[in-house]
Amino acid sequence: MAPTDPTQVMDTILQQVTTADSLIAVANFLKNMNPKDLREAALASPLSTGQDPLLLLSIPQNTLTVLYILTARLAVNNGQAAPTFETLENFCRTFDPEQARLSPDRVTLLAKGIQRLAVSTNNPRSAILPLHFLVTRYAPDPSYLTTIHPIFTVTCLQATHPSAALPVLNNPITSIDTNLSDLTYNDNLIYHYTGGVALAMLKRWAEAEEFFEICVSAPGAVPAALQLEALKKLKLVQLIAKGKTAPLPKYTNQLLLRHFKATPYHQFVNAYPHNVEALREILSKERNLFQSEKNVGLLKQALDRAPRWALKKLTATYLSLNLADIGKAVRISDEGEVRALLLDMIESGDISAAISADGSVTFSDPPPQFTRAQVDEVLKNVQEQSELLEYLEKEMARSKDFLSKAIKGRDDTVGFIGADEDVFSQIAPHGAGIWGIDD
Amino acid sequence: MVLAPPTPPPLSTTEIQDAARGENSSSQTAIAQETQTSGNNGPDTYHLRFPFIVEAVSASDYPKVIQIAEEVDLTAVGNNQTSRLLIIAPLVLAYLILDQSPPARYALARLSESHATHPLSKLLATLLNVTTNRNHSKVYATAATLVELISQPGFFDQDLAMVLTKLTTVFIERFRLRTFELLSRAYNSLTMAQAENYLGVPSETILAEASKNGWEYDSTSQILKPRAFSQKSNNTTNFSSLSTFAFVADSVGRLEA
């Protein structure tokens, strides 16, 4: 008769995992143990001797087993106490990623458990380092999106620590592998949305814009509510950074734009930047809505920066003006404020101008600011990106989905737009191959 | 995981402070007990790691100060010990030295309510605001008030006082230098009174620095004429190096491939 006491079951588990002849065997054993609730209770229990099984296991060598034990302890309310953050951090620093990849769902559970534990102890900051190690060490390289990414960025925001997310956000996502991580559609949306929020908090507007745009333009049958929130923030970030909005990618769901046009944000964008009174009125009238959507900060920043875009427009028309005339054009009566605005714009590189003691301002074209090293760096970056694009194109052309759609398209006498003859000649090396019906 | 869009975090200063107060108010009793306990058990993590910050400050390695302080802030247990200011105060000033206001703002926002109302924290918040808004005369005045506060004999930690004094001095020097460079770019001519306001030093000091940098001064009209701050020439022809040759050869090779 199989044991039902969790501690005895734990003894069995320990014996099995330490004597198994392969990691695959360990993974299959742990995954397929039944009943599941007894498995979880056992994994959260000490051994029958009262000893903690973690003391007998090595994290790098027994990553899978330790992973199962930690996730069970994080999930089970009774039994062994939840692991400490020190234990969790130690695991995340030293686990063997290749072993962990044999159980991606368990890795997701671990990340969620760490986040939940931190929130329940009213200290979300404690989860940041363990999750940082987990997200940076788990995938084969930082270009892969995993389920840990959105959990990590949400945790950084909960802890009011956006700069902690930067080392992860600085690596663009270009790879998805559902064997590596049990990803869902929402993971991509949440990661890029929360990443955009973290970057906006740090006033890294160009990067925030990119992240929001990725969220907004993620393809889907119907737009997600999160995409509409991302669109609102995207528009505001564009107003703050450039004074105007930019068109969205063509593959953005058009329903999103229709929904956006029905919001007061659209009115705000239309009135920006010249009609400052209208902007203030919209902000005042819809304050409750903006507050509930947590966009008041961005709206205020956009409003504060409205005069600078009006000033910037002047530089296209005038070679020189005096401070009083500039003040009238941008509707700032205080000359000191105009001077401060000019100085701020010169410092941030928005305009190139020189102020004289008599109050006159001369505008000029900004001098080129680059070094040979920067040019070399850009060239190297372009070469790397071209290589990556070529590789991605070839990978896509080899994929089963693409080929089946391509055949279907050919059968429907629709041409292959963008098909690369060289690529297909490599796929069908024997001449006719899959295109050989008519040959 | 999250079924609805996650609530966007507060972005404005007011929203951040409200959220920080909301997070900390519910656990103050337990944390007060923890504070007493940690006080009775000797030095805590903040005290133990503070010497590393002192070392980085002595070496004038401000990115290192930030790295150490951020790591300690993430790993230390307990939010309400006054010793947390050993880490946060140098962190904020190090960010200001590097002219990175947003992370400094959030470092202060993470303080508990009891710390946020500490005179040191309030002065740092003021310094951060006036620096972000480039209110030059207030920057110098606030920095002076800060130095005055930490120089008082009753300041809660003398080692911290020394570190903060150095950091504040370095911050003011760097801020002044950045302002001087900006004035060189932004002004064809400015009055001595304006220069004093921007730089926070008397006219004799300004004249000495101005003449070192090629500015002109008309004593009759008291007008200074800045000369554009010298930058490394972008047009200097550097001799070709082996690394450039390797880069060019590699690029040609890729084109041929």
From TrEMBL, chain A:
Residues 286-356 form the PCI domain. Residues 54-255 form the COP9 signalosome complex subunit 3 N-terminal helical repeats domain. It is found in: Cytoplasm; Nucleus. It holds the Pfam family COP9_hel_rpt. The keyword Cytoplasm applies. InterPro entries: COP9_N (IPR055089), CSN3 (IPR050756), PCI_dom (IPR000717). Its main location: cytoplasm. One of its GO terms (cellular component) is COP9 signalosome. Belongs to the CSN3 family. PANTHER family: 26S PROTEASOME NON-ATPASE REGULATORY SUBUNIT 3/COP9 SIGNALOSOME COMPLEX SUBUNIT 3, COP9 SIGNALOSOME COMPLEX SUBUNIT 3. This is COP9 signalosome complex subunit 3.
TrEMBL record, chain B:
InterPro entries: CSN8_PSD8_EIF3K. Residues 1-29 are annotated as: Disordered. Residues 1-11 have a biased composition (Pro residues). Residues 87-232 form the CSN8/PSMD8/EIF3K domain. It comes from the Eukaryota. Pfam families: CSN8_PSD8_EIF3K (PF10075). This is CSN8/PSMD8/EIF3K domain-containing protein. It comes from Ephemerocybe angulata.
